[in-house]
Design brief:
It is a single chain. The chain is mainly α and 392 residues long. Helices cover 72% and strands 6% of the residues. Strand 1, helix 4 and strand 2 form a beta-alpha-beta unit. Helix 12 packs antiparallel against helix 13 and helix 16 runs antiparallel to helix 17.
Length: 392
């Protein structure tokens, strides 16, 4: 009974009581609906991606690189393949190039002999969708090259043992022939329809992850924000004196936050169809636990409800920005990308991508392991903070 009394109290503190308690659960649902309409209008504007230009800076200047540039110019998705010589990356991007690709000198020579070579790719931040399509395709082809190198070199060692120069050349010939076939067979990555479908699916996941991240952080903050006031007003000490426990209070706030967040999140996932529902729900539930633990820690240690709530909102905004919920973190500077791993939206987005691709539960839990460990630490600090407040 004490637990139900606490839940009732938390609902009244969250909504203000009365008819507001009945209407409050519809607020996040309305938010999801309005943002879904916004996405719908955006999707209509982007229902067709016009062919766009890219630039290639051929520093190798060999027959093979010229053939490669010619193949790129014949793909429908590229309206033009500009010559990047004599212009800076900024100038080419200002002319509307989604990507500037620099082929280094001796690239195909190094590629033939399985030597590591860096390929410089500059993405235009003003064209994130087009840049993401090209980046995904280029990374796929580079992964194919890397895998072929390892497979053929390992096969050569197994077949010949300590390879002579003739054996090594035989392995290189077989590897290069198969590499050309593999890379050419992957040109459908640049197909306009395939790229469009991939972009729409990616946008759907990006949208769902961003909204879920906001709900999973903002709702726990709203529920736990009353903790300092309850201590100041003597509500929690009196509840404790009446035989209640602080664990019951924390569980009550978790149940309240979960009941408010569950319906809009579930509705959003059903509408968008973001992949395997059980895995996606598992990811979001784990991140919801981490979010509750974090804001429970923040507000159990805070002395002022207003200041702690302001700090919580600032943290939420920073996490949304750094985690890629508002802007693709791949297009951010590298030092900001490294900070994205400390944000909840990053794990939400990456986890939902893994679920959509059909990854196993073990792979998903491996991704979420840092967040799970952080949640355990936050929970311990929350319990210690509650005990310190009780003694005070």
């Amino acid at each position: 009974m004490k637990l139900f009394a606490c839940i009732k109290k938390d609902i009244r503190l969250l909504t203000g009581g009365g008819i507001k308690s009945l209407l409050f659960p519809f607020v996040p649902i309305l938010l999801v609906f309005l943002m879904f309409l916004g996405m719908g209008s955006l999707s209509e504007k982007r229902s067709y991606i016009e062919p766009f230009p890219i630039a290639v800076r051929d520093e190798d200047d060999t027959i093979l690189t010229r053939i490669a540039v010619n193949i790129l110019s014949e793909l429908d998705i590229f309206s033009e393949v500009m010559d990047g010589e004599g212009e800076t990356d900024e100038e080419l991007c200002s002319r509307g190039c989604a990507v500037v690709l620099s082929i280094p000198e001796g690239y195909f020579y190094d590629l033939y002999y399985m030597l590591d070579t860096d390929v410089r790719v500059v993405l235009n931040s003003d064209m994130p969708t087009e840049a993401a399509i090209v980046k995904s395709a280029l990374l796929s082809i580079l992964d194919i090259i890397n895998q072929n190198q390892r497979v053929y070199y390992s096969a050569g060692l197994v077949k010949y043992g300590e390879m002579s120069y003739e054996n090594y050349c035989t392995v290189l010939d077989e590897y290069s022939d198969n590499l050309i076939y593999d890379c050419l067979s992957r040109l459908d990555y640049f197909d306009l329809d395939t790229g469009l479908e991939s972009s729409i699916n990616s946008s759907r996941l990006f949208f769902a992850s961003g909204i879920c991240s906001m709900l999973l952080m903002f709702i726990p903050l709203c529920v736990f924000r009353s903790v300092p006031e309850e201590y100041d007003l003597g509500i929690l000490p009196r509840f404790r004196a009446a035989g209640g426990s602080h664990f019951t209070l924390l569980v009550s706030k978790f149940i309240t936050a979960f009941s408010v967040a569950a319906i809009p999140v579930l509705l959003l996932l059903i509408i968008l169809g973001t992949g395997e529902m059980p895995k996606t729900l598992l990811i979001l539930f784990i991140l919801f636990l981490v979010s509750c633990a974090f804001f429970g820690m923040l507000l159990s240690l805070a002395r002022s409800s207003a200041r702690s709530q302001l700090l919580g909102i600032i943290i939420i905004i920073l996490m949304l920005v750094l985690g890629g919920a508002l802007y693709p973190y791949e297009l951010m500077p590298e030092f900001l990308q490294s900070l994205s791993r400390f944000s909840l939206p990053y794990y939400s987005l990456q986890g939902m991508y893994l679920a959509a691709m059909g990854s196993s539960i073990s792979d998903i839990l491996s991704l979420l392991l840092p967040a799970i460990c952080a949640g355990a630490v936050f929970t311990i600090i929350t319990l210690l903070g509650v005990k310190l407040r009780r003694r005070a």
